[in-house]
Amino acid sequence: MNVLGIIAEYNPFHNGHAYQIETLKKETGAAYAIIAMGGNFMQRGAPALLEKYTRAKMALSCGADLVLELPALYACASAESFAYGGAALLEGTGVVTHLGFGTETEHLPILQEIAGILTRQPQQFRQTLQQGLKQGLSFPAARSLAVKNCLALSCSKGENCPSAELGQILSSPNNILAIEYLKALSRCHSSILPSPLLRRGQRYHDQSPGQEFPSASAIRASIWEPGSLPLLKHAMPAPAFAILKDYPHPFLQEDDFSALLHYKLLTESPEQLSRYADSSPSLAQRIKKEENSFLSWSSFCQRLKTKNITYTRLSRIFLHMLLNIHTEGCSPLPPPSYLRVLGFCKQSAPLLAAIKTHGSLPLLTSPASAPKLLPAPAQALLAHDLAASNLYRIGLAAKGDNTLKNDYQHPIALT
Fold first, then answer.
1. Is 34 left (phi over 0), alpha (psi -120 to 50) or beta?
2. SS3 167
3. Can you tell me the mean pLDDT for 70-93?
4. Phi then psi for 351, rounded to 5 degrees?
5. Are 162 and 108 in contact (CB under 8 A)?
6. How far is 8 from 52, CA to CA, in rounded Å?
7. Which region, left, alpha or beta, applies to residue 227 given φ > 0 means left and ψ of -120 to 50 means alpha?
8. Quick one: which of 46, 78, 351, 397 could link to 254 by a disulfide (CB 3.0–4.6 Å)?
9. How far apart are CA 321 and CA 262, in angstroms?
10. Integer Cα distance of 3 and 217 in angstroms
11. Which helix or strand (DSSP H or E) is residue 340 part of?
């Protein structure tokens, strides 16, 4: 039995996501599709537009069979940790045979070669990387240059290498994430087969309206425009749009948590701020120096960002501060240790039975059962997920809505 796995955020679910599930199910001959989905906070350090159970229901209504929560430790981390967490989670089901992901190139062998270079880090790669950093390049730029040099050597040896496209391949967010997925499969010693799908429609950051396959960024941007919700009908599958239209809670963005973040920054020392994941002593000193200039989460990210510290990294660090995710808990990054069910299709009961038989990780349908099912380290990992859900509820309460149930009370999504 073939089973498709996809690592996603669905923030929110749109036509491109439905196309990906449908097409990859056909191409892989998969009987089922399992989604490892980020919870209430996203990889870029921002809250999800809609809470996790609603987004799981969207996916289940549009082709997914089972939605598992990607724990916050990975869902709110760098691309490398995000990909590793998702791949290891799907590997832990014991049933996933194919990992589906989007790319902006048809050259899978080149993506695999790049993944191999980044995993092996040969001497030429390390030397070029260090030279680039000494010349003042940002780390991503220096790493890209080092990869290009290694690939150029492969091309000179007569290997098939579209050198003219390398710059574009290495600058695309979808390709970068695809490379991390390939690295993660290797790191997990997984037999799961990579199943890339050429992206259709807008690029990742494109926010221009009126596209058949608009990006999630474009949809989020449109949602914040007054009266724009009906215009999104063309951008989403009918079941997902119906769920969005009836969503009972306010939409959230990072600035809804500005007051909490500001208080944290004012009340902690530089040493404390430096201990959070992705932070550093030098950044903590800059934060304390600029703390009286704080106006909002987003404006403070803009104020602090540099060539080597991006807006997204800063936003992730701030989220780590609110969730108390420290470097010591992420280095080395622990593997996923449970399969948290957010929702499933009733006709997919055989899939759950297969996971219980073949999976290496316990299935968790409610955090109330965690003390009996999970060892202490796994419960510590789950605590970050519960903290993220509580933080999300605080954001909603600040906007006058206290109706979202906590994770102990909220039922899983069923279709």
1. beta
2. helix
3. 97
4. -65, -45
5. no
6. 12
7. left
8. 46
9. 11
10. 29
11. strand 339-344
The reported pLDDT for the residue numbered 162 is: 56
Grouping H, G, I as helix, E, B as strand and the rest as coil, residue 101 is: strand
**Which one is predicted more confidently, 22 or 137?**
22
Question: Of 69, 74, 8, which Cα lies nearest the Cα of 325?
Answer: 74
pLDDT of residue 228: 81
Q: What is the mean pLDDT of residues 135-145?
A: 86
Q: Compute the CA torsion angle 250, 251, 255, 261 (nearest 10 deg).
A: 70
Nearest to 342 by CA among 100, 9, 3: 9
- Go through 294-304 and write b for each residue having 16 or more CB atoms within 10 A of its CB, e for each that does not: bebbbebbeeb
How far is the C-alpha of 222 from the C-alpha of 232, rounded, in Å? 8
In this structure, how many other beta carbons lie within 10 angstroms of the beta carbon of residue 206?
12
Q: Angle at the Cα of 221 (from 219 to 223), degrees rounded to 5?
A: 70
For residue range 119-129, list pLDDT tens digits in order: 999 999 999 99
200 close to 19: Cβ distance less than 8 angstroms: yes
pLDDT in tens, 176-233: 999 999 999 999 999 999 999 998 754 544 444 445 678 888 899 888 888 888 878 8
pTM for the predicted model, two decimal places: 0.93
Question: Can you give the pLDDT at residue 152?
Answer: 74
- For 388, other C-beta atoms within 10 Å of its C-beta total 28
Torsion of CA 70, 73, 78, 82, to 10 degrees: -20
